[in-house]
Amino acid sequence: MGEDKKTEEVILEAAKTVFIRKGMDGARMQEIADEAGINKALLHYYFRSKQKLFDAVFSMVLRSTFNEMREIFSGEFSVEQAVRKFADSYINTLIQNPYIPEFVIHELNKDVEALQLLVSKNLPDITPFLQVIEKEIAEGKIRKMDPRQLLMNTISLCIFPFVGRPIITTILFEGDSNAFYQTMERRKSDVADFILNSIKK
Amino acid sequence: MGEDKKTEEVILEAAKTVFIRKGMDGARMQEIADEAGINKALLHYYFRSKQKLFDAVFSMVLRSTFNEMREIFSGEFSVEQAVRKFADSYINTLIQNPYIPEFVIHELNKDVEALQLLVSKNLPDITPFLQVIEKEIAEGKIRKMDPRQLLMNTISLCIFPFVGRPIITTILFEGDSNAFYQTMERRKSDVADFILNSIKK
DNA sequence: GTCTATACGCAGATAGAC
DNA sequence: GTCTATCTGCGTATAGAC
Which one of A93, A105, A151, A200 has the fewest beta carbons within 10 angstroms of its own beta carbon? Predict the structure, then answer.
């Protein structure tokens, strides 16, 4: 039983790696089996079908992706704290896992309906944070603006460079991948400064 | 011969629609044939293979996508002009074609090598604009910052909401698609204001 | 639980009539 | 140039031995 569980986890890890790189449609069960060091039949023994294996991986990825967000936008932090925390935490995670956002987005784009349920369970409720923004605007701490636009800006600035990494690396860093990642390291504070500079009165 | 060309264009349009929604791997030749109102065999008669048909569509999409960018970042506009032009022009285009960025990004992520040549021919050279930014910093018109970060910010803020549209619509607009698009209309000026507010001294 | 061998269906590609 | 019918290979899934 201890052994069983271990195999299952090895499969999930391998499937995660392959699905994230190739997507559901592009991934091959053979490739996942190779990555896990086992054979195709065993994948079906544990997960019955490619679709079920994918669902397991996808829900795993969603959970870990949005957990951080849930805490940061829970409403217990000020706008400045949340913006700095979000930039630092997400850009750090994305430097380690640059393929995840594009993967999630691609799968959601393909089939919004089917995954809506799965997603709604995992997506954080950000209304508390929108209220914090409104409160700080009312108090005159930050300039007047649509709270949703501010939140969208924060998310966009942190995540997009990784989603568009191939293009950005080509267009802005002449294909030099190291230069890209070094800029991302600095970006953790640069982005926060950029946002806070814009919203201060 | 006039008839021939028309069929070819009908196929290209249909292929574009299907490829953009489903991606290369998810698209089916049968679906493209249906969309074009013809049969599979004719697709092969005109384009020999799915791959060649895809390449034709992809290079078409790349060209139209980056043409606007080339002009805006040519160096003939000031930072403020370029930012306002870019936000207005790209958000307008994306309201009409919201699936294009995710499509391009997904295909590039899957196979960076193979498409590198295709891409490098289409990607604009943005160094002139980076120099404009540096010049305006030197002149004290805008605050000191990494020109690449500013350009990345501008691109991120305009494009990301469309790439992440399914998630953003769910998380920020309770699934109300109209609310999303109305916010994007306002975003054309909001984003420009947000950026210019942040960089002014 | 893990393997090898095999069934089966789907989707890309071709043959050949009109 | 456009169609119907068919081939072929690949990839998911299953059967069955160990």
Answer: A200
**How many Å is the Cα radius of gyration of chain A?**
20
For chain B, the domains span 1-48, 59-199
Cβ atoms B70, B127 nearer than 8 A? no
d(CA B49, CA B37): 18
- For the question of whether the overall pTM of this predicted structure is more than 0.90, the answer is yes
CB pairs under 8 A between A and B: 153
CA B171 remoteness from chain centre: 23
| Per-residue model confidence as pLDDT tens digits over A86-117 | 999 999 999 999 999 999 999 998 877 766 77
Residues from chain B that touch A191, judged by Cβ atoms under 8 A, are 149, 153
What are B167's two structure tokens?
Answer: 């998630």
Instruction: Residue count of chain A, please give it.
Output: 201
**Domain range B59-199, CATH class:** mainly alpha
User: Who among residues 165-184 of A has its Cβ near strand C, under 7 Å?
Assistant: none
Listed in sequence order, the residues at least 6 apart from B191 whose beta carbon sits closer than 8 Å to its beta carbon are A149, A153, B87, B91, B157, B158
**Residue with structure tokens 């080509």?**
A170
The structure tokens 């568009």 sit at A164
Q: Specify the 3-state DSSP secondary structure of B200.
A: strand
Give the side-chain half-sphere CA count within 13 A for A188.
14
Q: How many residues does chain B have?
A: 201
Q: A1-48 has which CATH code?
A: 1.10.10.60
